[in-house]
Amino acid sequence: MSSFKKAIPKRKYRERSQPAHRQHLGMLEKKQDYKLRSEDTHKKEKILKDLYEKVQNKSPDEFYFGMQNTRIIGGKHRKESQFIEPEKVKKQKILDGNLLNMKVMNKISQSEKLKESLHLIDAPAPNKHIIFVDNSDKLETFDLAKHFDTVPELINNKSNRLTVSQLSSVKLQEYPEPEGYQELEVLAQEEKIVSKSLEKNILSRKLLGKEKYKVIDEEKKQYKWFRERKR
Questions:
Q1: CA-based diameter of the chain, in Å?
Q2: Beta-strand relationship, 222-225 and 76-79
Q3: What residues contact residue 216 under an 8 Å CB cut-off, 6+ apart?
Q4: Quick check: helix, strand or coil at residue 100?
Q5: Gap between the Cα atoms of 51 and 64, Å rounded
Q6: What sign for the dihedral angle of Cα 87, 90, 96, 98?
Q7: Distance (Å, rounded) from C-alpha 4 to C-alpha 153?
Q8: In 3D, which of 114, 119, 104 has the Cα closest to residue 185?
Q9: 208 and 93 in contact (C-beta within 8 Å)?
Q10: Own/partner pairs, 103-112, CB within 8 angstroms, 24+ separation
Q11: What is the DSSP letter of 103?
Q12: Hey, which bits of the chain come out as E strands?
């Protein structure tokens, strides 16, 4: 029965057109057109209502720093273009450079104090062990590990060089690295970061100077300064 209903022809839907005496008014507005126009109208009315409430509730003593650099241009609030004099920029760069330089010196002093407290940091090398051979041919084939009866990993350990027999009887244990060494690595990384910032600051100050320079590579920040002849 359902398939028979589908076979029955239906009247084609046609929308009502604009009457002839109203053709000069354009197309006849349908419900979907009216709905879009209505939503747009109510949206604008809500915006105007919110703005009116803001104006009514605004405090006359309200202030924020953005007001100093904002002006009404063409009915809209726009920020004025802020121009800072080169001398002020250079002065601020000098202050930043002094602060960065102080931080670098502080990191270096902290590292030096920490090295003094840690064990065997930058300690002088022990006495040299000189081995004499008969001729130069034997020197080329000389094996230090075989001579000292130890493994190649302990050749440079002159203070406590264990032999192969001692290593087989001794049970080695792994000891965690002391906290001071980790702190020393952190200080080294921080010093490296601050030093890079200081280098950038010095370069920017140099670019603001009166010395003539040539741009070699803009991405890599490579410049060449021309040396002026002093009379």
A1: 127
A2: unpaired
A3: 222, 223, 224
A4: helix
A5: 19
A6: negative
A7: 95
A8: 114
A9: yes
A10: 103/194, 104/191, 104/194, 104/195, 104/198, 107/187, 107/190, 107/191, 107/194, 108/191, 110/187, 111/184, 111/187, 111/188, 111/191
A11: H
A12: 70-73, 76-79, 213-217, 222-225
Q: How many CB atoms lie within 10 A of CB 32?
A: 8
Give the CA radius of gyration of the chain: 42
Give the global pTM.
0.45
Token pair 């406590």 is at which residue?
A: 160
Span 25-60, pLDDT tens digits: 888 888 999 999 999 999 999 999 999 999 899 888
- 163: DSSP letter: -
Residue corresponding to tokens 């929308």:
15
Spatial distance between the Cα atoms of 154 and 165, rounded to a whole number of angstroms = 14
Q: Which range (91-100, 154-163, 190-199) has the least confidence?
A: 154-163
pLDDT digit string, tens, across residues 55-106 = 899 888 888 887 888 888 778 878 776 666 778 888 888 999 999 999 999 9
**Distance in angstroms (rounded) separating the CA atoms of residues 229 and 167:** 69
- Kindly report the backbone phi and psi dihedral angles of residue 65, in degrees, each rounded to the nearest multiple of 5, phi listed first: -65, -20
Mean pLDDT of all residues in the chain?
Answer: 81
Provide the 8-state DSSP code for 45. Answer: H
Interatomic CA distance for residues 141 and 2, integer angstroms? 102
CB 210 within 8 A of CB 197: no
